[in-house]
């Protein structure tokens, strides 16, 4: 099925700011100058374009592309704004990279195997430069049996748990997938993963991921550090490890699909991975084994339609199915619900275009200054449109938003609050409606193959860490969470309403 029909059915070509953004995210931007008329650039809503760029977390790529093109109709204020964000993101990524390497060395020194997910490691692996991708935290993957010891060393490193939830029995090992921590002085968030995905779906074991790991280059110099006092082995701490290319695609496609691809940054990752040395023939049976065909087909269909990504020959049958086409259309609906409004509210009453000077006074820059770490790091964060996505996601049927994503959406939506009191009150009402919107699992279930869907429903019968938050029990009585599970689930369900 031709992928161009995806765009035709979704009417994305009518959005000129989004069309320009997609053109700049493609690898071949020389075609951009030939196809974009001067009148289109002259009529471009540049403030909305800026907000789209910030929302999709693609400021580094867009800034460098616009700077290279140097078109006379591109506002100088826009370039200065993007340049400031680009520099702050570079500092932020270097700060996260140094902290991730410090934590990795700490865990390795105590015999804990570590794989770095996303963040600076992925930026280096796919883009060749940590400054070319954005990230808000550090993600480390370890084996489930190392979780208790790793958590101890994270606390020794100055990190405190953000949730404080008690892990119940052993179901957390396959029902949950990470725990979040925060360093209060450095203002760095870190997630310690023991699985790639939540909900106990199919995925490779840590041992399989470790056996296919790739070596990444760290910023520090080579040093030899003993693993433990009782062990005379040493390791090279200048190296970090990331997922192998085949496992990387499995992870990135499933992660983007689970979040409805509401950020184009995740799709750009797929686009960059497509040109790497990946054994696509070996990836295909891996996708079948772990239920990755629906998400993988969706990822290829979206990347080809939006970014012009060449689909490798072994992956073309996966992207040409009706299921891949249907899931891609669903993701486009989700993306459209998440983007900023075409005409932002200006000073005073009524709608209209913001003054060009306001491009310099970006809300994102204010947030970055406020959230900058105390030790000189930097932060990059999003802007508007996300509260609207959460509010409308129920209507579109694409509501597979995780609790972490919902928290991020509601915390960043306030950055776009209009100045007029009436508009501000309206946005608060929108946020309240979004906060109470029941989250449908229809979209998430559509990403699962039948056997994994059955396992998902069975897993709902087992206790989770949320049960301990609703009804705390001593550890010796945790077995009672099994018969209490239906009642605790109902309590949480009705408490949301």
Explain this structure.
The protein is of the alpha+beta class. It has 25 helices and nine strands. It has a five-stranded mixed sheet with strand order 1-2-5-4-3, with helices on one face. A two-stranded antiparallel sheet has the order 6-9. Strands 7-8 form a two-stranded antiparallel ribbon. β7 and β8 form a beta hairpin. The longest helix has 34 residues. About 20% of the residues have low confidence.
Largest sheet: 5 strands, mixed
Average pLDDT score: 74
β-strand amount: 5-15%
The proportion of residues forming helix, as a percent range, comes to: 40-55%
Number of helices: 25
CA-atom Rg in angstroms: 23 Å
Gross morphology is globular
Q: Which stretches of 5+ consecutive residues score pLDDT under 50?
A: 220-237, 343-354, 372-439
DSSP strand tally:
9
Distance between the termini: 42 Å
How would you write the strand order of the largest sheet? 1-2-5-4-3
SSE topology sketch:
Elements (H helix, E strand, L loop, with lengths): L3 H7 L5 H10 L4 H6 L2 H5 L3 H10 L3 H11 L6 H34 L5 E3 L1 H9 L9 E5 L5 H10 L3 E2 L10 H4 L2 E6 L4 E6 L12 H6 L2 E4 L6 E5 L2 E6 L2 E4 L2 H14 L5 H10 L6 H10 L3 H15 L8 H4 L2 H17 L24 H9 L14 H11 L6 H11 L7 H15 L6 H5 L3 H10 L5 H6 L10 H16 L1
Parallel strand pairs: 2-5
Antiparallel strand pairs: 1-2, 3-4, 4-5, 6-9, 7-8
At a glance:
The protein has 497 residues and is an alpha+beta fold. 53% of the residues lie in helices and 8% in strands.
């Amino acid at each position: 099925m031709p992928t161009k029909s995806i765009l035709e059915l979704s009417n994305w070509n009518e959005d000129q700011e989004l069309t320009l953004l997609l053109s700049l995210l493609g690898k071949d931007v020389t075609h951009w100058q030939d196809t974009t008329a001067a009148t289109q650039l002259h009529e471009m809503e540049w403030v909305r374009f800026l907000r789209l760029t910030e929302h999709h977390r693609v400021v580094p790529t867009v800034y460098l592309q616009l700077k290279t093109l140097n078109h006379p109709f591109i506002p100088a204020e826009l370039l200065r704004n993007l340049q400031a964000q680009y520099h702050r993101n570079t500092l932020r990524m270097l700060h996260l990279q140094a902290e991730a390497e410090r934590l990795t060395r700490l865990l390795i020194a105590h015999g804990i195997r570590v794989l770095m997910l996303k963040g600076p490691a992925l930026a280096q692996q796919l883009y060749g430069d940590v400054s070319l991708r954005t990230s808000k935290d550090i993600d480390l993957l370890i084996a489930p049996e190392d979780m208790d010891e790793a958590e101890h060393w994270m606390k020794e490193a100055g990190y405190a748990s953000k949730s404080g939830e008690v892990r119940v029995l052993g179901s957390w090992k396959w029902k949950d997938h990470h725990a979040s921590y925060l360093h209060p002085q450095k203002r760095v968030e870190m997630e310690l993963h023991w699985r790639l995905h939540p909900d106990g779906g199919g995925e490779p074991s840590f041992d399989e991921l470790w056996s296919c790991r790739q070596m990444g280059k760290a910023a520090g110099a080579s040093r030899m550090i003993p693993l433990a006092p009782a062990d005379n082995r040493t390791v090279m701490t200048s190296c970090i490890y990331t997922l192998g290319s085949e496992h990387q695609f499995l992870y990135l496609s499933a992660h983007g699909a689970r979040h409805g691809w509401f950020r184009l940054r995740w799709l750009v990752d797929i686009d960059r991975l497509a040109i790497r040395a990946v054994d696509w023939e070996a990836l295909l049976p891996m996708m079948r084994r772990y239920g990755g065909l629906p998400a993988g087909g969706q990822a290829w269909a979206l990347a080809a339609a939006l970014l012009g990504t060449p689909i490798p020959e072994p992956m073309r049958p996966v992207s040409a199915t009706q299921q891949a086409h249907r899931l891609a259309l669903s993701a486009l609906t989700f993306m459209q619900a998440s983007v900023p409004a075409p005409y932002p509210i200006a000073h005073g009453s009524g709608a209209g275009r913001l003054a060009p000077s306001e491009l310099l006074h970006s809300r994102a820059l204010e947030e970055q200054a406020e959230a900058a770490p105390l030790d000189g790091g930097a932060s990059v964060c999003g802007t508007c449109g996300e509260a609207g996505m959460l509010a409308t996601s129920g209507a579109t049927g694409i509501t597979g938003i995780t609790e972490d994503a919902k928290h991020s959406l509601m915390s960043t939506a306030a950055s776009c609050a209009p100045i007029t009191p009436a508009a501000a009150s309206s946005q608060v009402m929108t946020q309240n409606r979004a906060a109470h919107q029941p989250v449908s699992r229809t979209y998430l279930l559509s990403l699962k193959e039948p056997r994994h869907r059955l396992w998902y429903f069975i897993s709902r019968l087992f206790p989770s860490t949320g049960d301990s938050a609703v009804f705390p029990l001593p550890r010796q009585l945790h077995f009672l969470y099994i018969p209490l599970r239906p009642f605790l689930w109902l309590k949480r369900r009705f408490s949301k309403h």
